[in-house]
Amino acid sequence: MRDYGGARRVAGLRREELARLAGVSIAHYTRLEQGKGDVVSDEVLTAVAAALRLDADESTYLHRIARRPETCANKDGTARAEVPLSVRHLLHSFVLTPALVVGRHTQLLAWNPLAAAVFGDFANVPDERRTLSHLLFTEPSQRDLYGDGWGAAAREHVAHLRVLFARFRGDPAFVAHVESLRALSADFARLWDEHPVAQTRSRAYDLHHPVVGDLTLHAELVSLPDAPSCCALDLFAAEPGTPSARALRELAGL
Fold first, then answer.
1. What is the DSSP letter of 124?
2. Is 120 exposed, middle or buried (0-12, 13-18, 19+ CB in 10 A)?
3. 216 phi, psi to nearest 5 deg
């Protein structure tokens, strides 16, 4: 494997240095900086990603934002995402598993009763703020629920939102979503400007529920490729036999 010059240098890294580390011409790299990624080959983008020591998610992000965005089917961003009936049936089959159907910019499109019991009554949240982003960054109850883990959860969320932003470039509703959060939350604006990029996969949360107390939930985000407007199914489960599992049973009974 090619040696790209030791530790990654970001602060003060000159264009000429980065081009040299990537093994590409300054002209190629300049076109990339000028937003002319469509005339830069995938090989050049891969070389730049390697020079910057980007991980797989960050490299994919670079490739996506360097190209022209695909034409968005929902050009004005006003069409309401429809949840397929089969997905709704699946959602409500999870009796002891909190489950959410999430849209392309984290809209909460559907949920089962246990998800509402754990995370809050989503039905009482106005449509324009019924997103995971708005709940996490603007609802004090969510900060209380996540407790000391809120900061890590917030950064993880913004990093995943960056992945989605690159995937759905050209969607005006997504741009409006980000601008809304930047105006409403200084924490969101700071994290967004820090530019974290990471695909959300398996994770675990230690929650502090107001009714049943401490909950440790393991989460899995499952893509729904045949329902692109829905984007994903977010599932939460407790380890069998633990106090958290018993707490979920109690909430399901309530």
1. G
2. middle
3. -110, 115
- Reading the block at residue 7, the tokens are 């530790």
Q: What is the pTM of this model?
A: 0.80
61's torsion region: left (phi>0), alpha (psi -120 to 50) or beta?
alpha
Conformational region of residue 30, where left means phi above 0, alpha means psi within -120 to 50, and beta covers everything else: alpha
Task: Look up residue 110 and give its two tokens.
Answer: 């559907």
| CB 198 within 8 Å of CB 163 | yes
Amino acid identity, position 231: C
- Residue 38, SS3? helix
127: Cβ–Cβ under 8 A, 6 or more apart, which residues? none
Kindly list the distances between the CA atom of residue 49 and the CA atoms of 44, 78, 83, 165, in Å, as whole numbers in the listed order: 9, 35, 37, 19
Decide if 119 contacts 130 (C-beta within 8 A): no
DSSP state of 107: B
Tokens standing for residue 218: 């393991």
Pairing of strands 232-237, 108-111: unpaired
Choose the weakest-confidence range: 65-74, 94-103, 160-169, 199-208. 65-74
The predicted model gives 182-199 an average pLDDT of: 96
**Segments making up each domain of the chain, as ranges:** 15-66, 85-147+199-253
CATH of domain 85-147+199-253: 3.30.450
- Tokens 């960056």 label which residue? 162
- The tens digit of pLDDT for each residue in 87-143 reads 999 999 999 999 999 998 999 999 999 999 999 999 999 999 999 999 999 999 999
